[in-house]
Design a protein that fits this description.
The protein contains 6 helices and no strands. It has helices at 10-35, 37-63, 69-92, 102-121, 132-149, 157-187. The protein is mostly helical. Helix 1 (10-35) runs antiparallel to helix 2. The chain folds into 2 domains: 1-75; 94-193. The two termini are 31 Å apart.
């Protein structure tokens, strides 16, 4: 049975469709050995569709008043799963190699740190807002991944993708530090330390 939070909710359907497209992208990467450039261009097409859902799910939710707890929970998680999977694929299929590996490592480190920060601040009812710069980071990151998908099959696509990924990584570090600054007062206040929970 389809959950009421999903059924008849276009915003949540768009969010879930982004995750459904991930296996298609993975398969297309593995088909590259047999299909060559065709697989890469098909992967780019699927990626663009997924990126469009990333832009429109939030817009649709606000426009149609379809903001739900389920969507609020799933949207940022689906974004992280999608981007993380794409970065792993691009590393595995030699789009990102050598010293450029620092870029996805920095992005992963930032996401882990911010997730931990949000978990730490959650019980204190402190929210860390998404900044305008963070939205630029996301846009630059998504653009870079598109170029890297077709990197070996289009002139200068790989170089352009790595440049955009470098910019996205720089913005990732800057926004991550800005989140830390916003939460620093709570991190260094010993009165805000919660008792550790026992593992069950």
């Amino acid at each position: 049975m389809i959950s009421p939070s999903i059924k008849n909710n276009l915003a949540n359907i768009l969010t879930i469709s982004r995750l459904i497209l991930l296996p298609v992208l993975i398969i297309l990467f593995f088909l590259e050995a047999q299909w060559g450039a065709l697989a890469a261009w098909l992967a780019l097409l699927v990626y663009i569709i997924a990126a469009i859902t990333d832009f429109y799910d939030g817009y649709v939710a606000r426009k149609l008043d379809q903001i739900t707890p389920f969507g609020t929970f799933l949207d940022p998680i689906s974004d992280k799963i999608f981007v993380s999977t794409m970065l792993i694929l691009l590393v595995a299929f030699d789009r990102i190699t050598g010293l450029w590996l620092f870029l996805p490592i920095a992005i992963f480190a930032r996401e882990f740190l911010i997730s931990g920060l949000r978990e730490f601040l959650g019980p204190k009812d402190v929210k860390v807002p998404v900044t305008f710069l963070a939205k630029w980071k996301t846009a630059t990151q998504m653009l870079s991944l598109g170029f890297l998908i077709i990197g070996p099959y289009a002139p200068y696509a790989l170089e352009i993708g790595l440049i955009f990924l470098s910019i996205a990584t720089l913005l990732t570090i800057i926004t991550g530090f800005s989140y830390y600054v916003a939460a620093k007062i709570y991190l260094h206040d010993e009165n805000n330390i919660d008792e550790p929970k026992e593992n069950s």
